[in-house]
Amino acid sequence: MNPPRHILIIRPSALGDVCRTVPVLVSLKRHWPEARVDWLVQRGFEGAILGHPDLHEAIPFDRRALSLRRVATGSWRSAMAELMSRLRTPRYDLVVDAQGLFRSGFFAAMTGSRTRVGYARAEEFGSIFYSRRIAVDRSAHAVDRMLALVEGLEVEPVPDMRLYSTPKGREGLPDTLRGARFATFAPTSRWPGKRWPQDRFLEVAKSLLAQGAVEKIAVVGGGNEREQCSLLVDHAGVEPRIVDLIGRTDVETLMAVIESSAIVLANDSAPLHMAVGFDRPLVGLFGPTKIG
Question: What does 36-71 look like in DSSP terms, one character per residue?
Fold first, then answer.
């Protein structure tokens, strides 16, 4: 194929998966350094990639506004028209769908690009939207499956997982953590089977502080996940060295918190993948689900 000038990566979610799709961006940019590479991402998650030097533009979209439940509303039609304009205007030469769902495949088709690459066995019949279907080993690690897409384009895969924080995120780092040696605990997860018991996190927190291994512990998670870590949050009320950041960071600030951590203790969740991207010392806790 001719060297593409404009490339679009489609990987809207989840946040941790957005983080570990970065090697696709790096591989494409390394192979075609003159190309402009954009990324279609769910609104709210763009902070994970905004600082990456290989990214030209993040294109966030509002998932709720495009919900099929609203398909009969004027707001849905308006949101869809706006997104279609954003996707068609650049005239992408190459679109890589690293998500592999019906919706992401549909977005690929919306671009009007002639070269739309995705998984041969995409879920929800998403592969009907691709012009090139790449067969991958479905038992392979998620990163390896995504890199197989670029290998299908005869692009050498570059397994570079590095993430980059933004100035805005670093400015948002809480004053209580600046200059301190701190651990970050990410005790939440969407799935109950992936959650290490709360009391274990609290026990480790007390031990680290008692031994002087760290000066403070930052507890991170979404605002709707507070109940999952109530023991830690409650203890923060009597232990000022535990910093409650549940629901108090956007993605860019969370990235900066992870980047500044001396160590990260995390369930299988977005902060775990961020810790990998920032090469931080990490203890990853995996429940009865397949790693990768």
Answer: EEEEEEETT-GGGTTT-TT-SEEEEE-TTTT-GGGT
Alpha-carbon gap, residue 219 to 186, rounded angstroms: 6
Residue 56: count of CB within 10 angstroms of its CB? 14
Please tell me the total number of residues recorded for the chain in this structure. Answer: 292
pTM value is 0.95
**pLDDT over 80 (residue 170):** yes
**Whether residue 193 sits in one domain with residue 281:** yes
Report if residue 131 sits inside a domain: yes
- CA nearest neighbour of 105 among 40, 38, 15, 44: 40
Q: Domain with 271 in it: what CATH number?
A: 3.40.50.2000
> Residue 169, CB half-sphere, CA atoms under 13 Å: how many?
21
Identify the domain boundary among 101, 118, 151. Answer: 151
The pLDDT-based confidence of 4 (bands split at 50, 70, 90) is: very high
Q: Say whether both 62 and 134 belong to one domain.
A: yes
| Residue 163 belongs to some domain of the structure | no
d(CA 247, CA 260): 19
Distance CA 73, CA 83 (A): 16
List, in order, residues 6 or more apart from 47 with CB less than 8 Å away: 166, 169, 250, 251, 252, 254, 255
Instruction: Check residue 68 and give its pLDDT.
Output: 75
Identify whether 122 is part of a domain. Answer: yes
Q: Domain range spanning residue 257?
A: 168-285
Question: Using one digit for the tens of pLDDT, what is the confidence trace for 29-80?
Answer: 999 999 999 999 999 999 999 999 999 999 999 998 888 788 778 888 999 9
